[in-house]
Structure formats: C-alpha cells, structure tokens
C-alpha cells in the first residue's frame, strides 16, 4: 500500500496493493492495523454506498458536531473527489485537494474529521462507497456551496452539475460555521 500526503493536511491518497491473477484481482480495502499505522484513525462505525449518474455533484458536506472521518472510493465508474480543509487552526485552512478515484485506478482518499467532502461523477454511472468514523447526524450536517469562489475548487465540469436542492443552497464559505 502506498500512502501520499495531499495539499490538505491529513488528507491521504491511498494506493492499495492489488493482487491480480487470471481470475481477476484481490485487495484489502481496509484493514485496521495497516490503516491505523498509516494515520487513518478509526474506529469506523458506518459504511455508505451511493450511486450517481454522470454530472451529479454531491457536497460539500460536513458535520459541525460529530465530525466524520471518511475513507472513500469509487467501486464502479469514476469520480472527482474533493476534500476542503475547514479547520481554522490548520496550516491548509481553506485549501482543497481533488483526485480522480475510479474502479480502474482503485485509489482511495482518507478525509479526516474537520474537512468538508464532495465529489463529481465523471462516468455514466458511479458507485461510491465509504467508511465513516461517526454516525450520520442530520441535525449537525452542514453544506458549503460547491462553487464558492473563496475556495475555488477546480471541478472538471462539462456544463452545469446536477445537484440536490440542499446542495444548490449551500452556504458560502465566508458565512459557514467552521471548526476551531
Ligand atoms: C448521508 C446519509 C444520508 N441518509 C439519507 C438522507 C436522505 O434521505 C438520503 C440522501 O441523503 P443526502 O442527499 O445527504 O446524500 P449525499 O448527498 O450522498 O450525502 C453524502 O454526500 C457525500 C459527499 C458525503 O461526504 C457524505 O458524508 C454524505 O454527506 O439518504 C442516511 O440515511 N444516512 C446517511 O448517512
């Protein structure tokens, strides 16, 4: 497994070791001891799976209380996955990092608590699966506007994204409730 630090402190890009043979492939998509050693602190308490059509953009989401660390990957298709640093005390506060995660490159991203998260679906359809370190708490959920100019995420968009009503009404970064 290869682990790389990204432009956002604590956001890690993970390249698992793939064991391919004439049957297909095998890899350990999470393993407590190895991932803990790499700095991916658990424990994980919830697994999620979403499916999105091309052009669907979900995010930028975070929970102001019960913040979630997320270990994310695309198990079908491809997405452009983004983490935004929302920790005022962080050296990379306000910065974002974006990476293509796909069923072909099998990359994963570790998004620690304190970061916002979102993704854009690049393929006709994408299955997105992730482990979370805290339970979903809708009362604490917050959404920052996906195209906030102060953050300036470089989404690889071809036209307008498809958004939920909640995401279309995301809060500007400058007005958002953030972490200390
Ligand atoms: C996130 C979540 C949603 N739901 C429900 C609420 C709603 O009826 C439906 C769809 O919810 P949403 O529109 O919030 O789903 P979605 O936009 O996919 O939300 C997710 O976006 C990505 C970017 C993240 O980082 C995740 O943490 C999560 O916020 O699923 C749960 O039951 N549990 C959950 O953990």
UniProtKB/TrEMBL annotation:
The keyword S-adenosyl-L-methionine does not apply. Pathway: Carbohydrate biosynthesis; dTDP-L-rhamnose biosynthesis. The active site is at 61 (proton acceptor), 130 (proton donor). Pfam families: dTDP_sugar_isom. The keyword Isomerase applies. Its EC number is 5.1.3.13. SUPFAM superfamilies: RmlC-like cupins. GO terms for molecular function: dTDP-4-dehydrorhamnose 3,5-epimerase activity. The record marks 136 as: Participates in a stacking interaction with the thymidine ring of dTDP-4-oxo-6-deoxyglucose. GO terms for cellular component: cytosol. It comes from the Bacteria. It catalyses: dTDP-4-dehydro-6-deoxy-alpha-D-glucose = dTDP-4-dehydro-beta-L-rhamnose. Keywords: Isomerase. GO terms for biological process: dTDP-rhamnose biosynthetic process; polysaccharide biosynthetic process. Gene3D superfamilies: Jelly Rolls (2.60.120.10). InterPro entries: RmlC-like, RmlC-like_jellyroll, RmlC_Cupin_sf. Homodimer. Belongs to the dTDP-4-dehydrorhamnose 3,5-epimerase family. Catalyzes the epimerization of the C3' and C5'positions of dTDP-6-deoxy-D-xylo-4-hexulose, forming dTDP-6-deoxy-L-lyxo-4-hexulose. This is dTDP-4-dehydrorhamnose 3,5-epimerase. It comes from Parasphingopyxis marina.
């Amino acid at each position: 497994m290869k682990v790389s630090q990204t432009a956002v402190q604590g956001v890690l890009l993970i390249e698992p070791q793939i064991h391919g043979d004439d049957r297909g492939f095998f890899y350990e998509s999470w393993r407590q001891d190895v991932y803990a050693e790499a700095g991916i602190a658990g424990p994980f308490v919830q697994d999620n799976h979403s499916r999105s059509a091309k052009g669907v953009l979900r995010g930028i989401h975070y929970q102001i209380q019960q913040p979630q660390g997320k270990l994310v990957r695309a198990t079908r298709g491809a997405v452009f996955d983004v983490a935004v640093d929302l920790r005022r005390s962080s050296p990379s506060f306000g910065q974002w990092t974006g990476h293509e995660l796909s069923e072909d490159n099998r990359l994963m991203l570790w998004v620690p608590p304190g970061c916002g998260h979102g993704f854009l679906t690049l393929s006709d359809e994408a299955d997105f699966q992730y482990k979370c370190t805290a339970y979903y708490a809708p009362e604490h959920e917050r959404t920052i506007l996906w195209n906030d100019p102060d953050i300036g995420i470089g989404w690889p968009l071809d036209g307008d994204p498809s958004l939920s009503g909640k995401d279309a009404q995301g809060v500007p970064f400058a007005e958002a409730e953030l972490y200390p």
